[in-house]
Protein backbone atom coordinates (compact mmCIF):
# COMPACT_ATOMS: atom_id res chain seq x y z
CA UNK A 1 0.00 0.00 0.00
CA UNK A 2 0.97 3.65 -0.37
CA UNK A 3 1.11 5.54 2.91
CA UNK A 4 0.49 9.25 3.34
CA UNK A 5 3.60 11.39 3.57
CA UNK A 6 2.59 14.90 4.61
CA UNK A 7 4.75 17.65 3.14
CA UNK A 8 4.53 21.18 4.51
CA UNK A 9 5.53 22.77 1.20
CA UNK A 10 2.86 20.85 -0.73
CA UNK A 11 0.26 21.78 1.87
CA UNK A 12 1.29 25.43 1.64
CA UNK A 13 1.01 25.51 -2.16
CA UNK A 14 -1.30 22.80 -3.52
CA UNK A 15 -3.44 22.87 -0.37
CA UNK A 16 -3.97 26.61 -0.70
CA UNK A 17 -4.74 26.19 -4.40
CA UNK A 18 -7.31 23.45 -3.72
CA UNK A 19 -9.11 25.57 -1.14
CA UNK A 20 -9.11 28.51 -3.58
CA UNK A 21 -10.38 26.23 -6.37
CA UNK A 22 -13.35 25.14 -4.25
CA UNK A 23 -14.29 28.75 -3.48
CA UNK A 24 -13.79 29.83 -7.10
CA UNK A 25 -15.88 27.03 -8.59
CA UNK A 26 -19.04 27.38 -6.53
CA UNK A 27 -21.59 30.20 -6.36
CA UNK A 28 -21.89 29.62 -2.63
CA UNK A 29 -20.88 27.03 -0.04
CA UNK A 30 -23.44 26.13 2.62
CA UNK A 31 -22.17 23.97 5.47
CA UNK A 32 -24.03 22.59 8.47
CA UNK A 33 -21.24 21.70 10.90
CA UNK A 34 -22.06 19.71 14.07
CA UNK A 35 -20.46 20.26 17.44
CA UNK A 36 -17.44 18.06 18.04
CA UNK A 37 -14.79 17.29 20.62
CA UNK A 38 -11.41 18.75 19.72
CA UNK A 39 -9.51 16.10 21.67
CA UNK A 40 -10.78 13.16 19.59
CA UNK A 41 -9.94 12.04 16.03
CA UNK A 42 -12.64 12.20 13.36
CA UNK A 43 -13.74 9.57 10.83
CA UNK A 44 -15.59 11.41 8.04
CA UNK A 45 -17.85 9.26 5.81
CA UNK A 46 -20.51 10.06 3.23
CA UNK A 47 -21.81 9.91 -0.32
CA UNK A 48 -19.39 9.88 -3.26
CA UNK A 49 -20.89 12.00 -6.06
CA UNK A 50 -18.12 13.71 -8.00
CA UNK A 51 -14.49 14.45 -8.78
CA UNK A 52 -14.74 17.15 -6.11
CA UNK A 53 -15.11 14.69 -3.24
CA UNK A 54 -11.43 14.74 -2.33
CA UNK A 55 -11.15 18.52 -2.33
CA UNK A 56 -14.33 19.31 -0.41
CA UNK A 57 -13.35 17.44 2.82
CA UNK A 58 -9.92 19.08 2.59
CA UNK A 59 -11.67 22.46 2.52
CA UNK A 60 -14.07 21.44 5.32
CA UNK A 61 -11.26 20.27 7.56
CA UNK A 62 -9.14 23.36 6.93
CA UNK A 63 -12.04 25.72 7.61
CA UNK A 64 -13.84 24.02 10.50
CA UNK A 65 -11.67 21.36 12.16
CA UNK A 66 -8.00 22.18 11.62
CA UNK A 67 -6.87 18.58 12.08
CA UNK A 68 -4.28 16.57 10.17
CA UNK A 69 -5.97 15.46 6.95
CA UNK A 70 -6.00 11.89 5.61
CA UNK A 71 -8.08 10.38 2.82
CA UNK A 72 -8.34 6.82 1.53
CA UNK A 73 -7.96 6.46 -2.26
CA UNK A 74 -7.97 3.46 -4.60
CA UNK A 75 -4.37 2.41 -5.14
CA UNK A 76 -4.47 2.57 -8.95
CA UNK A 77 -5.73 6.16 -8.76
CA UNK A 78 -3.17 7.26 -6.17
CA UNK A 79 -0.31 5.78 -8.21
CA UNK A 80 -1.18 8.17 -11.05
CA UNK A 81 -1.69 11.16 -8.72
CA UNK A 82 1.07 10.68 -6.17
CA UNK A 83 1.16 14.37 -5.25
CA UNK A 84 -1.96 13.64 -3.18
CA UNK A 85 -0.01 11.43 -0.77
CA UNK A 86 1.81 14.59 0.33
CA UNK A 87 -1.59 16.04 1.27
CA UNK A 88 -2.59 12.99 3.29
CA UNK A 89 -3.87 10.45 0.74
CA UNK A 90 -3.17 6.77 1.31
CA UNK A 91 -4.16 3.75 -0.73
CA UNK A 92 -6.37 0.71 -0.57
CA UNK A 93 -6.46 -2.20 -3.01
CA UNK A 94 -9.73 -4.03 -2.55
CA UNK A 95 -8.53 -7.06 -4.54
CA UNK A 96 -5.35 -7.59 -2.59
CA UNK A 97 -4.25 -8.94 0.77
CA UNK A 98 -2.79 -5.48 1.30
CA UNK A 99 -6.35 -4.31 1.95
CA UNK A 100 -5.89 -5.49 5.56
CA UNK A 101 -2.79 -3.31 5.82
CA UNK A 102 -4.82 -0.32 4.66
CA UNK A 103 -7.53 -0.98 7.23
CA UNK A 104 -4.96 -1.39 9.99
CA UNK A 105 -3.28 1.82 8.85
CA UNK A 106 -6.65 3.56 9.13
CA UNK A 107 -7.08 2.23 12.67
CA UNK A 108 -3.65 3.55 13.55
CA UNK A 109 -4.60 6.99 12.20
CA UNK A 110 -7.78 6.97 14.27
CA UNK A 111 -5.80 6.40 17.44
CA UNK A 112 -4.39 9.94 17.30
CA UNK A 113 -6.60 12.84 18.36
CA UNK A 114 -5.19 15.28 15.82
CA UNK A 115 -6.30 13.26 12.75
CA UNK A 116 -9.22 13.77 10.34
CA UNK A 117 -9.71 10.61 8.22
CA UNK A 118 -11.95 10.58 5.13
CA UNK A 119 -13.43 7.40 3.65
CA UNK A 120 -16.11 7.03 0.97
CA UNK A 121 -17.68 3.63 1.77
CA UNK A 122 -19.53 3.44 -1.58
CA UNK A 123 -16.17 2.70 -3.19
CA UNK A 124 -16.87 4.62 -6.39
CA UNK A 125 -18.80 7.64 -7.69
CA UNK A 126 -22.60 7.45 -7.92
CA UNK A 127 -25.23 10.02 -8.89
CA UNK A 128 -26.32 12.43 -6.17
CA UNK A 129 -29.87 11.53 -7.19
CA UNK A 130 -29.52 8.00 -5.83
CA UNK A 131 -32.27 7.28 -3.34
CA UNK A 132 -30.48 4.48 -1.53
CA UNK A 133 -26.79 4.42 -0.64
CA UNK A 134 -24.98 1.08 -0.56
CA UNK A 135 -21.71 0.84 1.35
CA UNK A 136 -19.08 -1.78 0.68
CA UNK A 137 -18.29 -3.99 3.71
CA UNK A 138 -15.33 -3.27 5.94
CA UNK A 139 -16.01 0.06 7.62
CA UNK A 140 -18.20 -1.30 10.50
CA UNK A 141 -15.54 -3.93 11.27
CA UNK A 142 -12.91 -1.22 11.19
CA UNK A 143 -14.93 0.93 13.58
CA UNK A 144 -15.41 -1.89 16.08
CA UNK A 145 -11.83 -3.09 15.79
CA UNK A 146 -10.69 0.21 17.24
CA UNK A 147 -10.50 0.70 20.98
CA UNK A 148 -10.09 4.43 20.44
CA UNK A 149 -13.06 6.67 21.16
CA UNK A 150 -12.97 8.51 17.86
CA UNK A 151 -15.85 10.55 16.45
CA UNK A 152 -17.82 9.51 13.35
CA UNK A 153 -19.24 12.31 11.21
CA UNK A 154 -21.64 11.35 8.45
CA UNK A 155 -22.01 13.88 5.66
CA UNK A 156 -24.24 14.41 2.64
CA UNK A 157 -22.86 16.51 -0.20
CA UNK A 158 -25.26 18.00 -2.77
CA UNK A 159 -24.93 20.52 -5.60
CA UNK A 160 -27.63 22.70 -7.21
CA UNK A 161 -27.36 25.42 -9.87
CA UNK A 162 -30.79 27.07 -9.69
CA UNK A 163 -30.48 30.43 -11.58
CA UNK A 164 -26.70 30.67 -11.29
CA UNK A 165 -23.90 29.80 -13.69
CA UNK A 166 -22.04 28.04 -10.88
CA UNK A 167 -23.56 25.48 -8.52
CA UNK A 168 -24.08 26.02 -4.83
CA UNK A 169 -22.36 23.39 -2.74
CA UNK A 170 -24.28 22.04 0.26
CA UNK A 171 -22.57 19.94 2.92
CA UNK A 172 -24.78 18.54 5.67
CA UNK A 173 -23.11 16.75 8.58
CA UNK A 174 -24.23 14.74 11.57
CA UNK A 175 -22.31 13.20 14.47
CA UNK A 176 -23.10 9.53 15.11
CA UNK A 177 -22.22 7.34 18.08
CA UNK A 178 -19.81 4.72 16.74
CA UNK A 179 -21.16 2.24 19.29
CA UNK A 180 -24.45 2.23 17.36
CA UNK A 181 -22.68 0.99 14.25
CA UNK A 182 -22.74 -2.74 14.90
CA UNK A 183 -23.00 -4.25 11.43
CA UNK A 184 -22.61 -3.41 7.76
CA UNK A 185 -26.39 -3.18 7.47
CA UNK A 186 -26.84 -0.90 10.46
CA UNK A 187 -24.23 1.53 9.14
CA UNK A 188 -26.15 1.69 5.87
CA UNK A 189 -29.42 2.06 7.76
CA UNK A 190 -28.07 4.90 9.90
CA UNK A 191 -26.63 6.67 6.90
CA UNK A 192 -29.67 6.19 4.64
CA UNK A 193 -32.02 7.49 7.35
CA UNK A 194 -29.84 10.60 7.63
CA UNK A 195 -29.41 10.84 3.85
CA UNK A 196 -33.12 10.67 3.03
CA UNK A 197 -34.00 13.09 5.84
CA UNK A 198 -31.48 15.56 4.38
CA UNK A 199 -32.85 15.10 0.83
CA UNK A 200 -36.39 15.83 2.04
CA UNK A 201 -35.30 18.93 4.01
CA UNK A 202 -33.01 20.14 1.26
CA UNK A 203 -35.76 19.90 -1.37
CA UNK A 204 -38.19 21.77 0.90
CA UNK A 205 -35.74 24.47 1.97
CA UNK A 206 -34.41 25.19 -1.52
CA UNK A 207 -37.74 25.04 -3.37
Q: Radius of gyration, rounded?
A: 16 Å
Proportion of strand residues: 15-25%
Oligomer: single chain
Flag low-confidence runs: none
Q: How would a textbook summarize the main sheet?
A: 7 strands, mixed
Mean pLDDT: 91
Helix content: 25-40%
The arrangement of helices and strands along the chain is: HEEHEHEHEHEEH
- Neighbour order of strands in the largest sheet: 1-7-6-2-5-3-4
What is the number of helical segments per DSSP (H or I, 4+ residues)?
6
Query: What does the overall shape look like?
Result: globular
Our measurement of the CA-to-CA distance between the termini, rounded to an integer number of angstroms, reads 45 Å
Structural class: alpha/beta
Describe this protein's structure:
With 207 residues, the chain is α/β, with parallel strands linked by helices. It has six helices and seven strands. The chain has helices at residues 8-25, 55-65, 75-80, 98-109, 139-145, 184-205; strands at residues 28-32, 42-46, 68-74, 89-92, 115-119, 151-160, 168-176. It has a seven-stranded mixed sheet. Strand 3 (68-74), helix 3 (75-80) and strand 4 form a beta-alpha-beta unit. Helix 1 crosses helix 2. It is globular, with a radius of gyration of 16 Å.
